[in-house]
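Incident review: delayed structure delivery

Summary: a single-chain prediction request sat in the queue longer than the usual turnaround. Root cause was a stuck worker, restarted by the on-call engineer. No data loss occurred. The affected request and its eventual output are reproduced below so the record is complete for anyone auditing the incident later.

Affected input:
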Amino acid sequence: MTSKTGSGLSGALDRFFGLNKHGTTARIEVLGGATTFATMAYIIVVNPAILQFAGLPLGPATVATILTAVFGSLLMGLYANRPLAVAPYMGENAFLAFGLTAMGIGWQLRLGAVFVSGAIFLLLTLSGIRSWLANSISPSMKHSFAAGIGLFLAFIGLYQTGIVTSFTEGMPAPKTEFLARPAVPLKIGNWRDPKVLLALGGLMVIITLMCRRIRGAILVGIIVTAIIGYLMGEAEAPVGIVALPITGEYDLSPLAFQLDITGVFHLSFLPILLTLFLMSFLDTFGTLTGVGAAGKMLDSDGNFPQMERPMLVDACSCMFAALAGSSTSGAYIESATGVREGARTGLAAVTTALLFALTLFFIPMVKPLQQLGYAYGPALIAVGILMIGSVRNIDFDDLTEGVPAFVTFTMIVFTYNIANGLTVGLIIHPLLKVVAGRFREIRPGAVLLGLACLGYYLFGLPH
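Output delivered after worker restart:
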């Protein structure tokens, strides 16, 4: 009887996911999904910790992060049948938490921007315009976005851990009304501080594990650093192990459906929507290409087959994330680790979703990590290191490509604002093509994006 039941389940999984057709088995898919989960589970700790800076309560934000990963990964597996896990994006969460701080925008409005951008993604994907816009941006510019966001994340991690700090740190309060602009804006932090040393050690643990190709290196690094910090008296012990989700301090009601949508429809929100739109569809596009290449799933033209389905999942996940109370979500490049283990179908994504769902009952074990900047800060730096590799794909020999790319990622970091870098880069790119007499290389979509960015600087509120 047991054999028949197993055979029946195996047959059902094969029929639904097409396991034999894709040259895989249920065992391989489950292993691949578990591997993907291990490599991206750090998002449970890092995302709520970042969103806390935007004013989102920590407990509900943790639940929202997990639910978003569960929803998106399930939808990717059951609808798109792709081995791609979905969760709130790194980079977009930093934009919402740090990039919008100077504008004084409340978190309700930030979540509204995530929802509206998701709705735009959905409409543009269904109409085919989203792919058209993505293809209008040159490869060098696409890679500059990833490099710039990577540098931005690394800078946030360095600053939050105290590895680098403000030049005015430790100085006495000024006696005058205005503080003179320092000759050097940043300086090295106090490397004798135990927390800074923990952060440096944690970063070395993560990088060492990554060099040795240990799966889950980022998550392991966070846990190891937190344990050492606890033994050194720099961390609190968990108050519990198991807790019921959606109740008590993990009640989702303070965040769920609290978004402000109407306030998004102002001209000053153009750069915000533009940034969320660009980062999300480029992240998805890059992830599909990268994971597809890792699993040899691309066609002869280098395209990911049936790309529209994962893109629709991406759009729906963004809208769900905003409703639940989290940042923009989409397919994760860490899915490539599961693909390298042999995963080829949506069963891997479903496995990842179920593992995320299981963590809902063990949030108390995770909560102390969210208070430890020295533990999760190195993860931001490590992710930044992974993303900065995109710079090698920028064509610096062609100044009409290299200059806009350089401006993009430097403006992101040096203005501490992702929107500034993307908008300036998208304006300069077609402009340089024109002055160089190479206007035939400009695609209509690039002109449309450039004009939209120019409208931000002419009529919006640059910050």
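Verification: Residues 19-172+180-459 form one domain.
Action items: add queue-age alerting; document worker restart procedure.
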